[in-house]
Amino acid sequence: QAQLVESGGGLVQPGNSQRLSCAASGFTFRNLNLRWMHWYRQAPDKERELVASVSRSGDNITYSDSVKGRFSISRDTAKNTMHLQMTRLRVDDTALYYCCVDFTDSNYCGQGTQVTVSS
Question: How confident is the model at residue 1 (pLDDT cuts 50, 70, 90)?
Answer without folding.
Answer: confident
